[in-house]
Amino acid sequence: MLADAAYLQIPFLRFCLKHRLDVVAVLKKNQLGLLTDATALLGIVSPRTWDRGNVAVQAWDMEGFTLANVPAPLRVLHTQECITKRQYHNGSRQVRKESRQWYWATTISPTRLPVEALWEAAHARWEIENDLFHNMSTHWSLDHCYAHEPTAILNFILTLFLAFLLVQTFHHRNLKPSLRARFTVIGLTDELRIGLGTLGPACVWAITLSLPGP
Helix H segments across 73-203? Predict the structure, then answer.
């Protein structure tokens, strides 16, 4: 479970562990005791460094932290990241550097998920925000309410998630690279939608929709 700092709470951690789910969550001042301990102890650990594209990373990683009433040890990862951005301004190319730092807490041990992989997983939460929910709201009408009964709302959303997952899987796993270069996921979705409209009488739901009302 990749989560924001608001989810780094004892009930949520206990729920996930009970259902055999690991958690990677941002660590902020809402868990001030854990953050204070991690800040002090990570200072005695030598950082690991690596470059990933335009990002230079320093990472401090330590396990063995605890939270009261959480039946598993926690591991804390702290990173300082220097991002190099190149852009044109007034006709000249300029280089600008941005510094960011993060703290994450997780139930996953280093033997199961090395530090670089943990860093990648932690940052992947933004892909969920941007590529999933933003994409579905913009192109898949996730923010449109088709019904107002709670069970109906849930069924519409789950059906939409299932359709989105199937299209994404088909695009990323089934299409050849040459076709993926021609069709974005949105373009593929449009092709599938047009295909549904040309199925004719063999399409059961098309027949149902074309029947006259009572």
Answer: 115-123, 125-127, 135-139, 150-169, 177-182, 185-197
Give kind and range of the element (H or E) at residue 14.
Answer: helix 10-18
Spell 85-119 as b/e; 16+ CB within 10 A means b.
eeeeeeeeeeeeeeeeebbbbbbbeeeebebeebb
Total count of domains within the chain: 2
Q: How far is CA 118 from CA 54, 74, 111, 127, in A?
A: 19, 13, 11, 15
Q: Where are the alpha helices (DSSP H) in 43-149?
A: 115-123, 125-127, 135-139
Residue with tokens 């950082």: 47
Ramachandran quadrant class, 47 (left: phi over 0; alpha: psi -120 to 50; beta: rest): beta
What residues in the chain have per-residue pLDDT under 50? 209-211, 213-214
Of 197, 180, 196, the closest CA to residue 188 belongs to 180
**122 domain residue, yes or no:** no
* Whether 182 and 93 share a structural domain: no
- Could you tell me if residue 84 is inside a domain? yes
CB of 43 closer than 8 Å to CB of 67? no
What confidence tens digit (pLDDT) does each residue in 12-59 have? 999 999 999 999 999 999 899 999 999 999 989 999 999 998 999 999
As a whole number of angstroms, the distance between CA 91 and CA 200 comes to: 56
What are the tokens at 193? 């939608």
Confirm whether 67 is domain-assigned. Answer: yes
